[in-house]
Amino acid sequence: MPLSTPSRDALFAVRYARAAHTWTDALPVGNGTRAAMCGGRPGGLRLWLNDITAWSGPASADPLAGVQDAGPEALAAGRDAIARDDLAEAERLLQRQQTSWVQAYLPLAHLDIEVAGAAARECRRELDLRTGIATLAYTAAGASIVHETWADVPSGTLVHRITADAAVAVTVTIDSLLRAARAPREVGGDVVAEWMLPVDVAPGHEHPTEPVRYDPAHGRTGAVAIRAQSGPVALTPHSTGASVPEADGRLVDDRLQLPPARTHLIVIGTATSPSLPGGPDDGRDAATRARAVLDAFTPAAPATAHEPHAAAHAALMDRCALDLPSPADAAEIDTDERVARALERPDPGLAALVFHYGRYLLAASTRDSPLPLTLQGLWNAELPGPWSCAYTTNINLQMAYWPAETTALPECHEPLLRFVERVAATTGADVARRLHGVDGWVLHHNTDPWGHAAPVGAGHGDVSWAFWPMGGVWLALHLWDRFAFGGDLDALRTRAWPVLEATARFALSWIQTDGTRAWTSPSTSPENRFVENGAVYGVGTTSTMDVALFRELASVCRDAAAALGRDDVWVDELTRVVALLPTPAVGDAGRLQEWNPPRADEDPHHRHLSHLVGLFPFAQITPERTPELAEAAAATIIARGRESSGWALAWRAAMWARLGDGEHFAEQLALSLRPSSGPAENGDSGHRGGLYPNLFSAHPPFQIDGNLGVTAAIAEALVQSHDGTLHILPALPAAWPSGSVRGLRARGGVTVDVDWAGSRARRVRLSAARPITMEVRVPGWGHRRLTLAPGDPLTIDSRETAW
């Protein structure tokens, strides 16, 4: 089928002509705090409800609870064992420094919304990425019925609207996987249900006697409040004390019964209590808080109730858009069918749809949020969720925020930055001092809203994943990224600099040196292991990732000090010590070595490519500046294999984009955009990434970093600014000969729009947020040094202007 100019629906809508049978068929909505997965079928739907504050806990007051050995003596003992090459003993000692596990993000509740007598065979479902509204439509008993669900941005509520061309009655049933605290009840015309939040939830790979543990005396509470009205009337607050009409409906056998009407508006508030660390605590219980959320939703009329939300949602989504050609039927067929057909026919527009879907998920799960998004964003229906649905900091949390700056969603970066500031000043500093006896702050590979900063593993976790004290180093660099794109000197001074200094003090305490060389110990390369003398180990010295992270930190601290006009002694000391670390080495096979000294991989196709972090997201390895290392990096990616988990496929695609290899980028991207079901490409990989029917990325199971990593990789193929030069279309694949993108952002505060045809740029428009002079490179045009001024966009047309 020939490609055509993309329709808006082909690039911004996910749609199906069938019911949702599983959670990964359902459509996600979210406003950064509250979210729902919308599963639809003829006659009604289920809404799986989530609230970013619904976590198990409270955690122990002691962040080192369960640790058997702690302090500088414990660290010295582990280092001594490694120095003796007794790696088995080193791993045993490190396991004695493990806590149990981090806490879990919880599935709060689910609502079943049924239209009485609405038996039908067919339905249509759609998620419009431009409005953030999920729709279910069907015809039953002679009536055309439409359900619309959105996570209202202005009010913070969840809203479900039912409209029909004949009066229909509706039943709403509320339930949860959590233990009930009180039965559903009516309070001031609202229906309120409350559940206990567990004080402890073990991850799925652990098997304690009580995997989900409740403590009514010390646990937290979660609540859902529902306010519903039927008919063409305005929704009215119930908690003001004024004389207002009661809701149209009543609670019967724990079900909310809404009388026949042509319009039903159901508004949902959620809350938890007491507050999580870092959040304001007004002392109110969860039910009172949930009802207060409802009062923020005051539409003029049900028919226009969505308009403020749609406008607020569009304010983020409309900043950036990618247009690529699509088959003529792309907007008509089911989205999962489109994904399947793309295996056999060209469909560049599918990449654009997934690009927009990633931006949608980022905005929906982290805008104005009190916490960072989880491994599944805001959405989770399991207890426990996959990997506790918590925060994994050895790649996944960082990757989830990669598109925030480049695709014009900088405010969505803020929840992560606030979290990093808090942990660096509290639990991270405590754990660094008491567990390791070092300065600054530390964060290992798992964390949660309580700021868990110590290694997990319950005393038996494999140190290849359980011991990794570099999470704080990587996350601290996100504060610099925010400045590199946004240019806020005050934020760099007051927010970023204290974290960078604390991180540098950790580095200076952690790196060992004899004055002529430096090394790190104990050192792991996240989740990977090596073979030595017939045994498999995960800990050694000086992983390449350690070196890359510390070098990036030193570089960022120098640049931050220069921007702020500071001459702190520790900046020079960090630069001196880091320079003594070994440079990245190329092995006999022409690949970048992961360890120093070199080690033999246990799994040659391991999903993590941690030793290539200097290639992407950092810029220590580039084809222009370090061609030999860039060649070794390419050989390393190829040797690891094309197949992997969803997020690892995205990381590989981003790396190929950074290398300027559009064809390898396209090959890797294609694996990310295939159906999740099917055999892996090679028998050496236990993972097969791809897309679930609703376009969620499969690890498997679903992890949101796969979606957001793909969005970041596509942006990287179109615009790069990592080395002080603006690269336009640096890795454009041949399969995308024509298209356009607008609203991509570059470091230095530059916004880039590009149109291309015949695989060559035709028009480039650059807009600057602040004065800047930079080199710009465009394939086929060459390069030029340009000066940009705020409010004075520069447009270059290859057909009219000589480059």
List keywords for this structure.
alpha+beta
Explain what this protein looks like in three dimensions:
The protein is α+β, with helices and mostly antiparallel strands and 803 residues long. Helix content is 29%, strand content 25%. The chain has 20 helices and 36 strands. A hairpin with a 3-residue loop joins strand 34 and strand 35 (782-788). This is Glycoside hydrolase N-terminal domain-containing protein.
Largest sheet: 14 strands, antiparallel
Structural class: alpha+beta
Q: Note the overall shape.
A: globular
Count up the helices: 20
Question: How many E-type strands?
Answer: 36
| Percentage of β-strand residues | 15-25%
- CA-atom Rg in angstroms: 27 Å
Average pLDDT, rounded to a whole number, is: 94
Question: Which percent bin holds the helix content?
Answer: 25-40%
Distance between the termini: 37 Å
Enumerate the spans where pLDDT stays under 50 for 5 or more consecutive residues.
236-247
List the SSEs and their pairings.
Blueprint: E1 3-4, H1 8-12, E2 13-16, E3 27-30, E4 34-41, E5 44-51, H2 72-83, H3 87-95, E6 109-115, E7 124-128, E8 133-140, E9 143-151, E10 158-175, E11 180-187, E12 190-197, E13 200-201, E14 212-213, E15 220-230, E16 250-252, E17 255-273, H4 286-295, H5 307-317, E18 321-323, E19 326-327, H6 335-341, H7 348-366, E20 391-392, H8 396-400, H9 402-406, H10 414-425, H11 427-436, E21 446-447, H12 463-466, H13 471-486, H14 489-510, E22 512-513, E23 518-519, E24 530-532, E25 535-537, H15 544-564, H16 569-579, E26 600-601, H17 627-640, H18 646-658, H19 662-672, E27 690-691, E28 697-698, H20 704-718, E29 719-720, E30 725-728, E31 739-746, E32 750-757, E33 760-768, E34 772-778, E35 782-788, E36 794-797
Parallel strand pairs: 30-34
Antiparallel strand pairs: 1-19, 2-7, 3-4, 4-5, 5-6, 6-10, 7-8, 8-9, 9-10, 10-17, 11-12, 12-15, 13-14, 15-17, 16-17, 18-31, 20-21, 22-23, 24-25, 24-26, 27-28, 29-30, 31-32, 32-33, 33-36, 34-35
